[in-house]
Amino acid sequence: MTDRDDINQKDGNRTSKILWYLYWIFILLSIVLIGWTIYLKTIWTPDPATIGFFRPKKEKNIIKPERGTIIDHNGKILAITTPIYDIYMDCAVQKPNYTGKSEKEKKELRENEEKWQASARELAQALPEVLSKDGKDAAYYTDLILKGREKNLRYVTISKKVDHPTYKKLQELPLFNKGKYAGGIIADTLDPRQYPYEGLARSVIGYVRKQEDIEKARRRGIESKFDYELHGTPGLEWLRVTDNKTKIHDNDSSAIPVVNGSDIRSTIDINIQDVADKALRTRLEANDDIDGGCLILMEVETGAIRAMVNLTRGRDGKLGENYNLAIARAGEPGSIIKTATLMTLLEDGKVNLNTKIKSALKFLGDGNRVKVSVRFRGREMAHTNLGEKLLMDFADACAECATMEKNPKLEGRFMAIFLAPKNSK
After folding, report:
1. Kindly report the CA angle at 206 between 204 and 209, in degrees rounded to 5?
2. Could you tell me the end-to-end alpha-carbon distance of the chain, in angstroms, rounded to an integer?
3. Which of 89, 109, 345, 389 lies at 20 to 30 Å from 124 by C-alpha?
């Protein structure tokens, strides 16, 4: 009995020691874990080079503002931005890869591919009705999509210049209703500027096809002069990329709201502008010797400009609103300017240069300013340097009694200089 009691006592002591050791081991582990937690929370900072692997990727998205609309005195639209889309299709989207797959997996992939092609045929049947402007039939779209699938084409053109209502209908069609990453629909957004009245009042309204062109555009018209008010302020948001490659708004990041452009109401009445344009155009077309003309119609009671027509002949001889004559060729109010037109008269043999110089000297002697101009016809625009030389020779011939106010400047098809009497103040 004594030996057995000794054995039991030794076993009990051994168990107690094991538990005691385990107890202290757990105490030490707890201390280490608590210390490590405190270290991570207060001292440790992650390596910037590796932290990106553990956080969802973020992308900055600039939100373009909607450009303001230009309207006339009565509220009729003169310029407006409407979204237009070029529609493409990724025909290789979710195409199965059978390499290294088991027979069971291959069977499942084949079933999915058959479902995709069935949806593609349904899509092809629906496209002719939605895209009736293109005049294509269902057989065309079926062949286009399935051949694109076979050749792994990822940017197959479906339609060009699709308006917003049509684009919304396309998004509801079979396969396309699954989005870009499952249905393959790709929409490139265009924001062209629309001018319902085309060239009417073009020099007043201005012209810009898209916002990126405004810096390249000539600084004229409402479009350019009031670009800041029309353009608005872009917004900023951050998008988080999810596991299935879709992008969602990241609420944890800061965002800047977009401010759309303001609308501008002009004093122009487009109906009066149309009548004035036709009247001036009729007069100018009846006389080919007139290079251009300007018509400004003001409402006497309010002083508001109801029409401003600026027509000049282009290189092809056609009349158009190429630039604002009311501003570009404005003379000094009340000034007496005698005009001497060269080149045309010289070529026609009706007068020589000396005759024109004598007339100019007489005008200068009477205290008048003289405008000497050269008009270029047709291909003469390619040799404006000859006209400039002729003007400089004319100025040199009058140098004893006149000073040239400005160097020769080309405006449309005219180049001119102004001579002032030397005794004028």
Report:
1. 160
2. 143
3. 109
Query: Residue 132: exposed, middle, or buried by beta-carbon count in 10 A (0-12, 13-18, 19+)?
Result: exposed
Structure token digits, residue 23: 């107890």
SS3 for 199?
A: coil
β-pair partners for 236: 62, 256
* Residues 242-256, mean pLDDT to the nearest whole number: 70
- Whether residue 338 contacts residue 378, with contact meaning beta carbons closer than 8 Å, is answered with no
Give the pLDDT confidence of 21-32 residue by residue, as tens digits: 888 888 899 999
H-state helical runs in 131-187: 138-150, 164-170, 180-183
Token pair 């084409």 in the structure block, residue: 153
**CA-to-CA separations, 174 to 116, 133, 179, 319, 425, in angstroms, rounded:** 10, 20, 10, 51, 81
Other Cβ atoms closer than 10 A to 413: 19
Cα separation, 185 vs 286, in Å, equals 55
Model-wide pTM > 0.70:
no
Determine how β-strand 292-298 pairs with β-strand 305-313: antiparallel
Q: What is the SS3 assignment for 100-129?
A: CCCHHHHHHHHHHHHHHHHHHHHHHHHHHH
